[in-house]
Write the structure tokens for this entry.
Amino acid sequence: MVKYTHILVASDFTDNSGMVIKKAEELAKQMGSHLSLLHVVEPLPGYGYAFVGSAEIELQLVEEAKRQLAKLGKQLNVKDNDQYVEVGPTKIEITRVAEEIGADLIIVGSHGRHGLSNLLGSTANAVIHNADCDVLTVRLKDKI
Amino acid sequence: MVKYTHILVASDFTDNSGMVIKKAEELAKQMGSHLSLLHVVEPLPGYGYAFVGSAEIELQLVEEAKRQLAKLGKQLNVKDNDQYVEVGPTKIEITRVAEEIGADLIIVGSHGRHGLSNLLGSTANAVIHNADCDVLTVRLKDKI
């Protein structure tokens, strides 16, 4: 039987990320999988020097992400130590955490051909390129 | 409940594509989904003119693909009219067929960072970029 034992779901807390979370939750339920949550805080852009207060802002972003993830964890019954907030390039952090915790399925949202990601390079694309496990990309419906 | 009603699985008949098929079969079983099979025959490279016999070779490739898909269909209990052999660029044909048949999940293999696809550009990447539905990429273990 196909059974994913440990699912890592990466959420960016955007309006339509609820769909990604919902699918992750229900697939985990169906398959009896362990569920872990991840949010990645992208480092503030560097200008060759740290501007005053940048470290503090980053810290605030991490704290806010932890609060939001804790709220989500409570809804989904995901324990504190299965909630990850990491600082770094999103594409790298998702696959790094997946390997570290031994996830066999990563679930991420994908904006497809309409989103801003089309210009910036898609996180989902980079994740399937780098991941050592299966990846489910949930198609987010962008407002065009 | 998350339920994919119609799963399209694209197979390239390579040695390790069995894993993609197996996962598709079992997920379809678990969710009671309709399953369709697709193999895409890439057009022979054009040199500005058709070389003698190229149309015939393409036809043979299509016939061979149909035979292999029929064999697979029999194993998986997928009816003849849910088996698709298309000629065209793989990336485009997968999403075109998915839209045409109203698939809500596409399953494809991904070679990740080691495969030849790394050089050629990944089919899986193009599919998640263009698809209007969710995509499960199954990580194929390449011989390095």
In short: Chain B has one domain: 6-139.
